[in-house]
Amino acid sequence: MHRLIRRCGVSLIIAMAVFIAGPATAVPDIELQPVKVSPHVYYFRGESGMASKANKGFMSNAGFVVTDDGVVVFDALATPALGDAMLKAIKRITPQPVKRVIVSHYHADHFYGLQALKAQGAEVWAHENGRAYLQSDIAQERLRQRRAALSPWVDENTRLIGADRWLSFKDEKTVSFELGGTRFRIIESSGAHSAEDVMLFVEDDGVLFAGDLFFTGRIPFVGDANSKVWLAALDRMLEVKPRIVVPGHGSASDKTMQDMQLTRDYLIFLRKKMGEAVADMVPFDEAYSKVDWGRFEKYPAFQQANRLNAYGTYLLMEKESLGKE
Question: At 89, which CATH number?
Answer without folding.
Answer: 3.60.15.10
